[in-house]
Amino acid sequence: MSLLVLEDFFPFHTRIFYRQVSSAVTRVYETRYGLKPYEWRTMVILGPDGEFTANEIVTKSSMDKVSVSRAITALKARKWILSKANKADGRSRLLRLSSAGKAVYDDLAPLMLEVERKLLSVYSEEEVAELRRLMAKLANQDSAKFIV
């Protein structure tokens, strides 16, 4: 029988890594604007010039539909996103940042990039490239093959 040692268990390390990164970035947008993580992710996807449907945001973000729906509702209430009919598909709506939403994005984006720079500052450029490569390799695997 194999012994599972928490400190050697990869999922445990990813949880610690996630918590550290998430805490660093969340502190910025929560403190300045009271944003929830799913709201900020939605704003980043829409970016300064993006225009997407809710389903496209779900796909791009890997968030679930409920989180995206909550983000859209909250951001609309703050008048940070606008929506219009999607001419290509009469059932969906195209979403984009309003001028007020762009101002929030423009304020936060450089701060978030600075947080990223500080988080990665312990690595060389080569190590950052390798970290990104390894993370992409893991993310691109079919999760079904992990089921026991």
From TrEMBL:
Q: What SUPFAM superfamilies does this protein's entry cite?
A: Winged helix' DNA-binding domain (SSF46785)
UniProt keyword list: DNA-binding, Transcription, Transcription regulation
A GO molecular function assigned to this protein is: DNA-binding transcription factor activity
Residue intervals of the HTH marR-type domain: 1-140
Pfam families in the cross-refs: MarR_2 (PF12802)
* Family annotation (InterPro entries): HTH_MarR-typ, Metal_resp_HTH_trans_reg, WH-like_DNA-bd_sf, WH_DNA-bd_sf
The protein's name is Transcriptional regulator, MarR family
